[in-house]
Design brief:
7 helices; 161 residues; mainly alpha; 64% helix
Length: 161
């Protein structure tokens, strides 16, 4: 670390800004806005839906009695929750890799798309990207990761204006 006296600091701060510096700053600003305007890729939304769905093995057919009960305003009988399909190691690795790439993109885009910097949400997202869970905990880890991404996307708002 170098100590600078007041006279040197004043002289450096008063140094004129060149046109080259202004052009560089303008270019950096335009490039960062361009990155923010690109938006969130559709395949990320598809992957989030895949992880957050119940991943049912087979869809239970609707029964006639349920429609009749609903028409009279009566509650339908309780049904067993659908069976959850196991998440294969290849799927878990593919989704984890996709979420990690999305994390790098979100860390770059977020400052340009929010009114305030979401420090806690980004800290959680980066911590989840560095985590390496056991294969038995892959689905719960990916769901936590997906929820952290969704929370950040909610803060960023809708792309449509």
């Amino acid at each position: 670390m170098v100590a600078v006296d007041v006279a040197t600091a004043t002289r450096l701060l008063r140094r004129p800004v060149t046109e080259n510096d202004v052009a560089k700053r303008r270019l950096i600003h335009v490039l960062s806005r361009s990155l923010a305007d690109e938006g969130i890729p559709d395949d990320l939304i598809t992957t989030l839906e895949e992880v957050l769905s119940d991943r049912p093995g087979a869809v239970a057919p609707a029964r006639k009695m349920d429609g009749l009960l609903a028409r009279f305003g009566l509650p339908a009988p309780r049904q067993r929750p659908p069976e959850v399909c196991p998440l294969g190691p290849e799927d878990a690795a593919r989704i984890s890799d996709h979420f990690r790439r999305a994390t790098r993109l979100l860390v770059q885009i977020t400052p340009h798309r929010v009114a305030f910097y979401p420090t806690e949400e980004l800290r959680l997202l980066i911590a989840l990207s560095n985590e390496r869970p056991d294969p038995s905990e892959a689905l719960s880890y990916l769901r936590r990761y997906a929820l952290a991404i969704v929370a950040l996307l909610d803060l960023m708002g809708d792309d449509e204006e």
